Amino acid sequence: MSFSSREEYLKQNPHIQSIVTSASIVSGVAITGKVPDGFKEVLSKVAESHRSSSVADNHGKKSSKEIKTKQLVDKHIS
Length: 78
Known about the structure:
The chain is an all-alpha fold. It has helices at 3-12, 37-49, 54-59, 64-77.
């Protein structure tokens, strides 16, 4: 319904009142339970391609050298 037709409808039906509310917004989606193995494989490939991403932090394979280097960099940047 367009706004102009809504206004006309409300004029023709004075017993109906318009109530303004806020929009319904979904703030986020949570995944609970086990992540499928196929999706884990996709995440690991993304992590390999993008080493400095948050996906790599959570799902990538890291050597002890990479871990120590990242800790040292974080220490001096923060």
